[in-house]
Amino acid sequence: MIQFISHHNERYGYLDSIRLALEGGCKWVQLRMKEATDDEVRPIALEAQQLCKQYGATFIIDDRVELVLEIKSDGVHLGKNDMPISEARKVLGKDFIIGGTANTFADVKAHYEAGADYIGCGPFRFTTTKKLLSPVLGLDGYKDVINRMKEESIDLPVVAIGGITADDIPDLMLTGVSGIALSGTVLNAADPVKEMKRIIDITTKRQNEISK
Predict the structure, then answer these.
(1) Is the predicted pLDDT of residue 131 greater than 70, yes or no?
(2) Tens digit of each residue's pLDDT (9 = 90 or more) over 78-89
(3) Which stretch of DSSP H or E encloses residue 172?
């Protein structure tokens, strides 16, 4: 599974980035506009939601639980400084997806017990969008988290995030993670649509090799 975290640069805005990811075949989009107000996010979220419906993709909003409830997006992703997952579950009920950011196994266990549906685990390497998270996990960090989850029978999808490039994906998938989250790697490519297709191909090929 490939998740795209919306971003912007000199060439593309948030909606452009989402459209390009969807055109490249991505089926899971997270709208992340950390510094914006709800009123600034709402119109973009509504348009992004329609785009995701058009392409048959899951649409998640970062942080804004009330906005998720208001526009009925598919779910929310919560960082360490956002609303606690247990509280978000009370607000949203069982029909919404709730993901949580984790940096350690202790984070993963706490999110699991609080009712999270998936984990965004990272950072894989240093990245400015995740600069407040530490330590950097690397391949060994993911292996350790996944192994400890197995030991404690915690069955949750783990999505690796943080400075990941296409070249990292084959080795990352061998750690046992369920998916990869990307942002700048796609958006800053010369051809974002082509890059997303390439990343999906690499991921699918490795998943097929692992499952044999």
Answers:
(1) no
(2) 998 999 999 999
(3) helix 169-173
